[in-house]
Amino acid sequence: MAGRALAASLALATLLSCAPETSTAGAAQSASLHVTLTPEKPGRETTLGLAFNVSAPDGQIPSPLTAITLRMPRNLGIATSGLGTATCTPTRIETSGPGACPANSRMGAGHARVRFQVGPQQFSEDAQISVLAGPEQEGHIRMLVTATGETPVAARILISTVLSAGQLQITVPLVPSLPEGGDIAVVAVNATLGGKLTYKETRHGHTVSYHPRGITLPNSCPRGGYAFTATFSFLDASHSNARSAVPCPRRRHG
């Protein structure tokens, strides 16, 4: 399933807590976006946090997500960060799982929540996700996102996305749930790039561990802060736009 993209793999994973309800799927939905930069100081290394939520009226299940276009500041230093100094291949992940990938290919992690319906009942389930560096694609950063479901749906999902010109184009595959059930709907994703990662390198013949350099912010904060926008597309042909801006740090006086 490689060559799909970011958000669906975030969505489908280790399915856990089932909460039955009753309602009808396929309502009009809306999405929200929340971005963090920790710390948000210009010229400093930072951890990028991306979170979104999808909701429908009256507790109904949203239409399945099919695509996301995420736009971010072009001078955000993802390409020049110390993340992803090694790469992993889709074949290795599909054969042995993300644990078989080099430690230095890990770029981030997160979790997601999905919902689906079987007959009159709704089920809500959680997922753990990993973000890994894949082989470059035409000079652009390629990120592989993988998730493994265990119960009640046992599956490993692998999807790929390429960062180019401050934009991620994400195609979300439709994922069936249980027999007689509807497709899985992504309702929440929370992931980070950077953060508490441990890499390894050889120094003077010895292998040592270190924390990789994170994403570097531009030396000056743009007016209005660091702006991110996203367009979400759904199976019912509807769309939802969302925006999030990380404000510039306040200047200290005196």
Detailed description of the structure:
- By secondary structure, this protein is mainly β.
- It is built from two helices and 14 strands, in the order H-E-E-E-H-E-E-E-E-E-E-E-E-E-E-E.
- The strands form two sheets. Strands 1, 2, 3, 4, 5, 6, 7, 8, 9, 12, 13 and 14 form a twelve-stranded antiparallel beta sheet that branches. The protein has a two-stranded antiparallel sheet with strand order 10-11.
- A hairpin with a 2-residue loop joins strand 5 (121-137) and strand 6.
- The radius of gyration is 19 Å and the shape is globular.
- Mean pLDDT is 83; it is low at 1-26.
**Cα distance, first to last residue?**
57 Å
CA-atom Rg in angstroms: 19 Å
The proportion of strand residues reads over 45%
Instruction: Give the uncertain stretches in residue-range form.
Output: 1-26
SSE ordering: HEEEHEEEEEEEEEEE
> If you average the pLDDT, what whole number results?
83
Portion in helices: under 10%
Number of helical elements: 2
Query: What is the structural class?
Result: mainly beta
Largest sheet: 12 strands, antiparallel
Shape: globular
* Counted beta strands: 14
Task: Set out the fold topology.
Blueprint: H1 6-11, E1 30-38, E2 45-55, E3 65-71, H2 90-96, E4 106-118, E5 121-137, E6 140-149, E7 155-164, E8 167-171, E9 185-193, E10 199-203, E11 206-210, E12 215-216, E13 226-234, E14 239-246
Antiparallel strand pairs: 1-2, 2-9, 2-12, 3-8, 3-13, 4-5, 4-9, 5-6, 6-7, 7-8, 10-11, 13-14
Features:
2 helices, disordered N terminus, 254 residues, single chain, two-stranded antiparallel sheet, twelve-stranded antiparallel sheet, 14 strands, mainly beta
